[in-house]
Amino acid sequence: IWTVDDSENLSTSYSHISQAAKLLTENEVVAFPTETVYGLGANAYSDEAVQKIFAAKGRPADNPLIVHIASKKSLDDIVTNIPDYVYKLIDEFWPGPLTFILPKKGERLSKLVTAGLNTVGVRMPDHQLALALIKEANVPIAAPSANRSGKPSPTLASHVYHDLNGKIGGIVDGGPTGVGVESTVLDCTTNIPAILRPGGITKEQLEKIVGEVSVDKALVEEGHAPKSPGMKYTHYSPNAPVIIANGNYSFIQKLVNEYKEAGKSVGVLTTSEGIPYLQADKVIACGSRDDLRTVATELYDTLRTFDETDIDIIISESFPKSGVGEAIMNRLLKAAGNRVVEE
Ligand code: TXA
Ligand code: MG
Question: Which ranges does the record mark as transmembrane (predicted)?
Fold first, then answer.
């Protein structure tokens, strides 16, 4: 087992690509950076390799994986019946944080990748190290986020190390990922594409290119089974319970005080704007409300930082559900098990 640990920096990473690629071709699993979060990669053609992803993460076998490719033309090796609108979206957003769900082609992909479904998710990540690794391995790479199942996704190599050290072949350290939330998962098996998981590419961005885009009912109201199997699991949970406070800073502070009076040690997830107004045992600014992209970038690291403290509860401010706010609130609500307190 080799690991590119924190003491080694980005400039050493390229020399590790060939080692990492060799491990992939030997059906080992390797973590690598993408523009969204770190992925845990394996040869998508090999049952033996893909099985190791599920084992390392403790991931339920009914949750399919996204296949990562390094060139647009590799799409034809993996999927079929590609609608015209997919090509328009590829031209605009690939490489990038957009995953297409399409009918799978042939029998070559490991059935473990698709969890027995006849569709498969495919994306081309926008990260030089990821693209170099996939090219050198010369096979499509199945990769979920490189965290233990249920934990926040990793946006730093150290997050991967914390969760998976000793369980995987190695980590390619590319420093912090940029987008911070995972790719948008788009069902493209229908005439109108449907968002199954909000992510780095927003509904507004998609609609500009292809017109109408729908959203899986399970994301909008309760009582529907999500079409993306992964969306039904608890996720992104720090050790302490999370509560979302939907109100102004004085409302959030009032809530903090109530928990303090009940003898709890309280953490607050806010933004740079909230810092002057909030006092608690641990207050962390996660980006700026002025630019929700910065909140997305820092969200998972912020959630993980609370795990390094001994707080009993995390109270988070709420974010507008537009643009990338859609993905932020989707992840925060999961982290909170849907506990929201309204002003
Ligand atoms: O940004 C990302 O997408 C990251 C990086 C590493 O690429 N990957 C990622 O993978 O988030 P993962 O496994 O954590 O999430 C994949 C999501 C899950 O919700 C899964 O259920 C869904 O995609 N998915 C995969 N294949 C599917 C399919 N055939 N039909 C419906 N949903 C699918
Ligand atoms: Mg994940």
Answer: none
